[in-house]
Amino acid sequence: MTQAMSFRAAVPAWLLPAAAALAAAALALPGAARADESRSAAVPLLPAYKQECSACHVAYPPGLLPAASWQRLMTNLPCHFGTDASVDAATLKELSGWLSANAGTAKRVRRDPTPPPDDRITRSAWFQREHREVSAATWKLAAVKSPSNCAACHTRADQGSFNEHDIRIPR
């Protein structure tokens, strides 16, 4: 007997439509949840953004910060976390518009759109929650150096993917 036949034999005929609908909903939910969580990575990186920002660090997906944070960061590029990251006016306008349009799309950021202290992704409540099990010693490893070095552990960070299955803690 096939699986479908055994299912039909176990469920009364009058319940089949409802059971089928419930089964379809159950199968759809995990995929929908994963799609929503990865939405921040789903936005293709603007080539100018990737070129400018990944010259020094991972080009963080815009969905990881609310729009207000991106606006302040772009306004303060001459003093970007201790470095002059200035760009020409046209590039600034292009990057600022794109970041604002795609800001805060990650579910965890939409849930709490309050800008993190100092507009740092690593100081946001969701980041702290996600990394609470990482020891202080791990952050100090030569290969890691700081929480902002996502690529040290997230092997696909350069592609905007921070999936737990792709984490490799350096030794």
UniProtKB/TrEMBL annotation:
UniProt-listed SUPFAM superfamilies: Multiheme cytochromes
UniProt keyword NADP, yes or no: no
Pfam families assigned to the protein according to its UniProt record, in alphabetical order: DHC
Keywords: Signal
Signal sequence bounds: 1-35
Keyword Signal: yes
Organism superkingdom: Bacteria
Stated name of the protein: Diheme cytochrome c
